Amino acid sequence: MVAPTKRLSASPDGLNDAATLLRAGALVAFPTETVYGLGADARNSTAVAAIYEAKGRPSFNPLIVHVADAAQAQELVEWPHTAQTLAKAFWPGPLTLVLPLRQGHGLSSLVTAGLETVGLRVPAQDAAQALLRAFGGPVAAPSANPSGRISPTAAEHVMDGLEGRIAAVVDGGACAVGVESTIIGFEAGKPTLLRAGGVAAEDIEAVLGKSLLAGQGSSITAPGQMLSHYAPRGAVRLNATTARAGENLLGFGPVAGTLSLSRSGDLIEAAANLFDCLHRLDALGGPIAVAPIPQIGLGVAINDRLKRAAAPRD
Ligand code: TXA
Ligand code: MG
Asked: Looking at residue 1, what is its pLDDT?
């Protein structure tokens, strides 16, 4: 029998219930400023395994671990000077740092996929912060959607994909940033962009005073890095300025459409609207065409997600 999924409010009571469920090893989806995460106690392998089961992820891949602040992060990982610089500039916020694990970190090896590093993030969203503080420990959380589908930026999106497969979802409204965090690793000590996301690479380079290396598509083939991902049911065609017969056009700036990511051509607004627009067009059915998005600032993360949504599927 499928257990019902509770919808919890982002009130102190709702968040306490969510923390209690996490302590019991249950799965709780919660809002962050990027997308909704599917959270589990990162020290509990049974709970972490349940994430893969609920998402239908085909294999174990490293998950991002969420903590309340940089002090909690430093209990888990080595903390080079550059990590301090980046954390000071961008935490709490949509930045994940991949750092070497410390002895006695206590994280499940299912979270790290057996690697000697882990991706850590301090989310800014109020309910996420309050939940992490109420829980008091590290929370592993990939996006709260079935594997390969569009990421969730509202509690309804989570329910559409995972209702009956997870214990609860905390409803904290729409996600303000709307694309997943930017991931920075340190290859041979040099800051490296592993995934474009909610912090523009240009902003990170400005803080560091140097260019980021481009990730080599390391040995990790995590789902978000696979070519076909974030996929609506219908086919997706990019760089379209008009709709072809049967298509719904997702507009941007001067290209009007059935829906628009941002009529004024604002990339921050477009990122915040991206997954919600894809969910809506998915619900309408049929193929989707998408207007060109400039490849600067958050446009890099938006184009990355769109390219994967449009990729040929197996
Ligand atoms: O915005 C976000 O980052 C969202 C919200 C929920 O916080 N979370 C998210 O988590 O996207 P997840 O677990 O789906 O992200 C996993 C990505 C992998 O694709 C991989 O690229 C990277 O994190 N990653 C995690 N650990 C890593 C490691 N040790 N080395 C390299 N990459 C790692
Ligand atoms: Mg994801």
From this structure: 41
Ligand 1 within 6 A of CB of 63: yes
Same domain, 19 and 165: yes
Ligand 1, atom nearest to 38 Cα: 6
Residue 225 pLDDT class (50, 70, 90 cuts):
low
User: Does residue 224 fall inside a structural domain?
Assistant: no
Ligand 2 is an ion; its neighbours by CB within 5 Å are 143, 224
Residues 252 and 199 in one domain: no
Question: Residue 45 belongs to what domain range?
Answer: 6-214
Ligand that lies nearest to the alpha carbon of residue 192, given by its number in the listed order: 1
76-87: pLDDT as tens digits: 999 999 999 999
The residue whose CA is least distant from atom 12 of ligand 1 is 142
The verdict on 141 and 285 lying in the same domain is no
CATH label of the domain that carries residue 162 = 3.90.870.10
Same domain, 208 and 251: no
Ligand 1 within 6 A of CB of 96:
yes
Are 205 and 242 in the same domain? no
- Model confidence band, residue 59 (pLDDT cutoffs 50, 70, 90): confident
In what side-by-side order are the strands of the sheet with 182-187? 6-9, 168-171, 28-30, 37-41, 139-140, 64-66, 117-121, 95-100, 182-187, 190-195, 213-214
Instruction: Report the domain count for the chain.
Output: 2
The CA radius of gyration of the chain, in Å to the nearest whole number, is 19
